[in-house]
Amino acid sequence: MKVLVLNCGSSSVKFRLYQMDEEILLAGGLVERVGSSEAGLKFIVPGKNDLKTTQAIKNHEEAVDLVLKTICHSDHGILDNIQEIDAVGHRVVHGGEAFTESVLINEAVFLKIKECIQLAPLHNPPNINGIQASLFLIPFARQIAVFDTAFHQSMEKRAYMYALPYEWYGKYGIRRYGFHGTSHRYVAQQTAKILKCPLKDLKIVTCHLGNGSSLAAVKGGKSIDTTMGFTPLEGMVMGTRCGDIDPAIPLHVMEEENLTPAQMNAILNKKSGFLGITNDDNDCRIIEDKAEAGSERHILALEIFAHRLTKYIGAYAAEMGGLDAVVFTAGIGENSPILRRMSCKDLGFLGIQIDPAKNDKNAVIISSGKTPVLVIPTNEELAIAQESVLILEQEEEKVIA
User: What is the pLDDT of residue 56?
Assistant: First the structure.
């Protein structure tokens, strides 16, 4: 079975094509600057030279069309015929409470996804554009929606409800949803394989750390808590997002500086986090370099991030009643020995002891204590493809039954 994975952002389309019988990546790439006269395509086929082109692409439909034509191009394509694509797995950021798992897309599902736009006005619209383009261009392929929020729908009410007027929950859907669910689920499953232990028997803290960062408490293979909330703003310090703050702070500053809600929203999401602390940098690699050179602001940024990370790991160990593993993933998690060391140095009481040599080499297991600490590269695209195959197999079983 060949599965095309589409991850559509506001001005981009990331794609991967897999042969799922052996989970082989056939091709992948990115269309960026969608909506401009100088949109760029990068097409990657393992073992071959990358293809790069620039052209005008007005919308997501044209971007997906370019992807499909490139995949089947007579010179540099990988398929002879577009009908070789059996299914398309779509990353959808927000599924609200309507979706607790991935689903085969039909008209009713599509309408429900559209209803979730109010919960993710920046992310769901381009996700929907990708679905619409795919339905039009390759209607013969089965379409599956894989939600970032679905993995966290296993949280109990005590974990996802806020201490706010209860009617806001029913009226506006105010609750903790959590994000990065596809990544958290994938690395938890990989941890079980590496440790050769059933996932149902493990208590894992998964740390997805990048420009956007979140942690999850995964007990028995299910998310019981996560740091991101109603939006991806809550929780960890991030590249440009503030994470946890006293909610009175924005109200106070709005009044003092006469700011609108839109202006404050932009500050919290785009001018805070690493960028806000350092005043000029949100790239962790640059921050680490400047911290090593002695910049107090950059040292502080790393210390705040590590402090928040340590606090959440400890809290989630307590919430799960124990800890069997900690997993680092995503850009910072996979590539920052400094922050892994800083965040774990005071967690010896949980059996966590980082091995400096293994940590510096980004080994799979970087610990020497009784509680394993792992570095596992996330692969959300492969996880989406795996979910797509699983959903199709379940649908086939229903037909047989």
Answer: 94
**Hey, is 39 helix, strand or coil?**
strand
Prediction pTM value: 0.92
Q: Please say whether the dihedral angle defined by the alpha carbons of residues 360, 362, 367 and 373, taken in this order, is positive or negative.
A: positive
- Note the Cα 310 to chain centre separation in Å: 21
Residue 325 sits in a domain whose CATH number is 3.30.420.40
Give dist(CA 155, CA 179) in Å, integer: 13
Tell me which residue has tokens 């009481």: 349
DSSP 8-state secondary structure symbol assigned to residue 73: -
The answer to whether 148 is a known catalytic residue is yes
Let me know: does 327 contact 206? Beta carbons within 8 Å: yes
Q: What would the mean pLDDT of 283-304 be, rounded to a whole number?
A: 97
Catalytic option among 21, 148, 346, 355 = 148
* Window from 46-50, 228-232, 234-238 with minimum mean pLDDT: 46-50
Find where tokens 């340590």 sit. 310
Nearest C-alpha neighbor of 316 from the set 274, 352, 355, 366: 352
Please tell me whether residues 98 and 209 are part of one structural domain. Answer: no
Task: Provide DSSP, 137-179.
Answer: H-TTSEEEEEETTGGGGGS-HHHH--SS-THHHHHH--S---S
Tokens of 212: 């956007």
Question: Which run of H or E residues covers position 395?
Answer: helix 380-400
Looking at the structure, tell me whether residues 200 and 133 fall in a common domain.
Answer: no
